[in-house]
Backbone:
């Protein structure tokens, strides 16, 4: 243990930090957009940081990738056309393509280097990159969504970094309006929505912006995520209508393995803790509601 | 922000760390048992450490204290006699005494200094210390349980530090056998059981020891806890029999406030993630089972 050191992310907005014990830095690249670093840890496999923020570890990324994909895909009645904005590590893409009904999954990340690093240091997440249904684009996700044909997408998954830097434009009304337009009437938008403990105001603001962009129903699902600030994270689903009942029988009989997600976990995640429910209840007055 | 620094707990068994931004150390005492430190943080209120391990913060202790008390108390049909082993910060005692049916709650912590520090820096947790139903003992919890009259307790809550140092003896068969003997036939033991991600083997070992001590049914409930390693924690309930159905109507109609706990959260916490359920399923062969 003499050759190890501790690597920390200090998350200034919440005054908290997460750290891992690491053996060495494996790689570092400064892309046109951000600095990407890879470390080898003692207990968490490889760790990717972007601009100093923990993005994923080999050991615990399954929580996030499963919860960013399966709840939305099992809520939609028959998801065929999926777009992932961000998600350059390809972990969400892999989960999406586990659904045999999906005919096309476009992953549009602005930074090709994230995918190149993931192919090298998280190869298991890139298992499905050569699936004929997958299309990997390295382009501006805001422009991509703005140019999507109206009503052409079933599920949009916004698998982005924090709402600062390159991802800032993925958290505002204009972007949500593009998503709303691109989605078919029964379409679903799902976005990573930060910590329900320390960033509850951000979740409220995001849902408010989604509402102003035309979405009328929201569902925030909390889940554990040790490598993110506070170790507790969330995704938020938005729909034009149709509610958040999900295909529980299909989820229960799914033909693929998951480590965290199950039909019962999906249902359990719909239960918001008292203080989260109370904070989000204010939106009811604006006509938005949880399922 | 110039006068702040970062305070970390490096959790060696998992190679992960949790940290908070702090302004200053408010107090420190070396008791006969352990070193207790109090810091003032920028975003989490006060922080207590014992022997360098984060014990609680003003902001996030509600997860732990509510989940250590209400699930057990709403599972028991009519809990009147409660014993808390450890729990010197008095936060669990406060939650227990919110239940009007409780007639007597004994808190037995070996270290009086923990309670003195809590009274000073977490006074809100000590609100119920002078409740006539409360009895605060500063003594050895192992001896206390061994000397309890057989069948005299409805709920034993083991609110201990990690299973090293003073708390080591609270995780073995001899101690669990004392609890089993002290509990009435429909009694419940609940113990904090560490992180379900990185300490799953400890949970299995604990349940195995509980089984050898005579308990036949177990229930592990995960919950978020940002100040503990990985930000994801658990408690484990053990019963002689009677199952883990709980008084959902009473929980729904409870006459007191909680921030995290609710009847729905209680039910949701009973859903184990796939990998946790799979790991604990091996115990089924030994006759132990989840409800």
Residues:
């Amino acid at each position: 243990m003499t050759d190890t050191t501790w690597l920390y992310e200090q998350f200034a907005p919440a005054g908290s930090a997460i750290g891992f014990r690491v053996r060495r830095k494996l790689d570092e690249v400064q892309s046109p957009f951000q600095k990407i670093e890879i470390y080898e840890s003692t207990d968490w496999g490889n760790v990717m940081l972007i601009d100093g923020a923990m993005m994923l570890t080999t050991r615990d990324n399954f929580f996030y990738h499963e919860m960013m994909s399966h709840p939305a895909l099992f809520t939609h009645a028959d998801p065929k056309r999926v777009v992932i904005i961000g998600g350059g590590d390809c972990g969400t893409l892999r989960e999406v393509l586990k659904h045999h009904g999906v005919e096309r999954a476009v992953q549009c990340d602005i930074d090709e280097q994230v995918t190149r690093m993931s192919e090298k240091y998280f190869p298991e997440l890139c298992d499905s990159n050569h699936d004929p249904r997958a299309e990997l684009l390295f382009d501006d996700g805001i422009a991509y969504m703005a140019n999507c044909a109206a009503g052409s997408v079933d599920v949009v998954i916004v698998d982005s970094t924090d709402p600062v830097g390159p991802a800032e434009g993925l958290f505002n009304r204009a972007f949500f309006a593009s998503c709303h337009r691109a989605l078919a009437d029964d379409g679903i938008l799902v976005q990573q929505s930060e910590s329900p403990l320390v960033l509850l105001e951000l979740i409220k603001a995001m849902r408010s912006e989604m509402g102003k962009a035309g979405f009328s129903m929201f569902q925030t699902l909390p889940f554990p995520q040790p490598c993110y600030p506070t170790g507790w994270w969330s995704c938020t689903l938005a729909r034009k209508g149709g509610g958040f009942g999900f295909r529980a029988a299909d989820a229960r009989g799914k033909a693929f393995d998951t480590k965290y997600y199950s039909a019962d976990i999906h249902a359990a995640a719909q239960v918001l803790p008292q203080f989260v429910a109370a904070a989000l209840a204010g939106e009811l007055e604006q006509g938005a509601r949880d399922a």
Q: What stands out?
A: Chain A has two domains: 5-57, 61-286. Residues 77 and 247 of chain A are 7 Å apart (CA to CA). The mean pLDDT of chain A is 94. Chain A touches chain B at residues 6, 8, 10, 12, 14-21, 41-44, 60, 197-198, 222, 224-226, 230-232, 258-262, 264-265, 267-269, 271, 273-275 (CB under 8 Å).
